[in-house]
Batch of 4 targets.
Target 1
Amino acid sequence: MTRRLILVGLALSAILLGGSGSAAASAPDGGDQASYRLPFAPPLDTPLDYRIDIVHPQPGGAEMRFTRHFRLAFEPGDGDGDYVLTATLVGVEADAPALFVERYRATLAPMLDQPIRYRLSSAGRILALADPAAVRVIFGRFVAELSNRGEEAGSDRALAIAAVARYSALDDEALARTLFDDFDPIMAFASRHLDGAPIDLVSHHRDVVETRATGHSRLALIDADAEALRIEEQTLTHSETSDGVSQPDIVSAITYRIDRATGLATRISSRDTLATRDGRLLTRKLHELTPRRVRR
């Protein structure tokens, strides 16, 4: 079975967020284009609900769905114009065979209801964990649970072992970036200047088992109104085989809705398919950011 190198937003992360990969970008000459400068102005008086929903199609038309719910709260930081983001995993859901549901919930249980505070720059970029020692205790419990579940993971056992090895070796800076990966996409366009010219990107990355991958992407602004911008990304990812041969692996199609008032992405939808003739769907993913509902 083809390895699932699900590198959604790989090129975007590398070029906009300074991730672990490297990237080069070029913007074709598009002539006169509309221009948009997005702020980073997160709401400081309204908590946000943030949902990440991942669907894995199965043979015969069945699907497995895994969902995480976060509560996000922004506040001013101690520096000049910086912020603190408090992110709390408040719920997990799964619609899958019982064994997968039990593993999913058990693995994430150490992270539930544990507020993690991130220091952000005035542009919305991750600076550091506000309390790395406390977070390391929480993350250590998660890694221990992942290790325990890896013993039961069957064909995925090697991936679980590799993940445990990598996570156990993270320093504070790498730990902050790893945990922040869930929130990077919603802030990727904050404090950015965009126009109508497409941007071509090439990025380089290694997955959890150190497989090299290269992403070739094109980002394009496809729609704009007074409230939001809509951006599409198309990425073709090549992975390198054990004998050094590069082969097409994953095609990712991603659509971002960016709120012009805050600079935050309020909806990100993506589809990952095999880069083969049949283009078999591997995953659908949805990020949604909404004002938190107050229960009365």
Note: The longest strand covers residues 63-76.
Target 2
Amino acid sequence: MSTFEALYWFWVAAITTGIAVVVYTLIVHRLAEMAQPLRLRMVDSGRALLESDLPEADKRVVRYMLAHAFSGAQAWMLVLLLPFFVAGQIVVKMRPGGGAAKAHSAKPPINHECLVITGMFVFSIFAANPLAAFLLMLEMITFGFAGLLVGGPVLLSQAIFAAQSAEARGIFRRFGTKHVA
């Protein structure tokens, strides 16, 4: 390859990268504008939940979601931790009696407001980092097929909470007094 060809391809790559950065920045800005009203509603819902009779452990999770609603790093954390969560679920399901024991355990109803704020949180962090959202979507499609093969799909909200923190793994078992019918 001649020096001229090398310079030509260098500038093609540089210009293409620059265009991609500008387009990505515009997408992130537009998503941030779209997410802002939802983020404001999330703050109101979060304050109401914090003033309710939720257990303190659940209030910590709500505070965490409110504090990290603008964080693109949270989206990357989900992208990185989802494979480990799925692998753990597969191991549990493949153990003798692992899937059957959990299937018979009674699960209390889930607090509707907590599900709503979780959805708002997920949208908010993915608006802050659409590339991570795209990669997580690809992971979920891939692992969703694996989950169907092993023993059924995992609810997205449970997977997101499990990836968030060890404390949040049992949050659906503990959520408040307003329940989904």
Note: The chain has one domain: 37-174.
Target 3
Amino acid sequence: MKLLQLQNSIFHHDVILGKLHLKIKINEESIMSISEEIQQIINNGSLNNKITETLSPLEETLRSEIYAEMQQIHSEFMSLTEDVLDESELRRALVLRYIELKSRWIMYNTRLQFRLLLTGDSDDQLVYTASAISLFLEAMEQILTQRDVESINQFLVEPVSRFREEPSVVEMPVTIKVKHNSTELSGISILELRRR
């Protein structure tokens, strides 16, 4: 077997098995480690350009504040690739990081929807932070499988649907202490909370 590097990212294999001669071309990206994939995608200049472009309409102070938060997210990704050396653990950590960022994005959007509903006004910090986080999520989705992304999204939506299906009365045991004629009585009762 002979290995020739044709370009920086493409390798050509000549495999000869008796009378059979195979030529195999391998793209180096297909054999990249998860750590290298994360570094390549997160350090990609286009991600930074998209974030900068997204934040450009903001006034300088707010833009700098949100950009600093995005730089922190970037640094955390780089630390992750340096600290977690096992590929399977790094993939697991990437999934957890995706869940964390996706949860933040969902929370920002929930707050925005209610703010718009109640006041008719949006909050630029929430809008633009959610938008910038969505760019990180989009980048991470290039590494995660479609099945992973779908499972995570289902998992994040499920608690809401499960909460809606629960009965309207929630019982919680509470301890009640009452002073009556300088005598302290204590007991356990069930407190019912009714959802409206």
Note: The longest helix spans residues 87-119.
Target 4
Amino acid sequence: MNSPDILFTVQDFVRFQMMLKQHLIGAAKAPLIGTITGLQALVLGLVIYVEYEIIYRVFEFLSGDNDYWSPGIMGLTAAIMIIGFHLQAKIYPTNFAARFVNRAVQYLVPLYMLGVGLLVASILDVGSLIQTEPPVRLGKIPDEMTPTGIEAFFTNVTNPLAALTFSLGLGGLAVVNIFVAHHLLNKIWRNIEELTGRLAQAKQAIADYAVIKRTHQQYAACVRELADVLAWDDKDFCMTVAGAVLLARDEALRPHKEWLAEQRLGEKTPFDLKETASPNEVAKMIKPLEAISQDDILNALTPPKSLENRR
């Protein structure tokens, strides 16, 4: 239990400092979160550029000598498509477009990988990097594994399948880019919220701790002042008030008494009265004020016994 003389105990300040330290540790991770967010933004820029390049090349091929299609303008629609899909998926996460892209990516990624693998195999076959003459092993080589059969397999099966799967995978890459960009935007936004939240919490924690310390110091000062006041008894307080009243009376009467003395000596004084008064009248008004003694003030400050009995 806290002492009435203090607002917060040492244990309270330990808890406050631990809470402040937690927020400062959280804010110390801000550079790391900012670096990760920057890298994610770079990847997002790369994804948008790839999407732009795909659409640009397609419409550049389609336009030919025709100026009707602008490859640059059509390439910029990739960014609009990414932003539009991101907003739609964020507002309506279960709509058809979001579910279609999420489901299609499961098939488009392996399809693209399969197409690239078959395309590489076809290129190696055309470049004669694959052995067309199988090594001699035990037993007879089957007729279907002769060089003529291998070349026919690549010509009739592998090459068309590679072209088909790679074309479908390359076309589906536009959908995959939208999927990747959408999730990168989500991660970047969450990182920005976390970064700003950590910094704001640390700033608020520092301000709150400063308020706690200042309030604790002000409370301690008030307690000391209250103790000083309570240390005085009624007699000491009345004596102090009486002395202050007498001092104020003397200071107020001093110029009038000086004027009165100079008037009696017949000298002029810079002390100016707005209305003309005789020295006798001034002396008559000063006399009752000078007659007030310390005892008179103490008696005036002391309440009657009848009032003390009512307390």
Note: Residues 147-231 form the longest helix (85 residues).
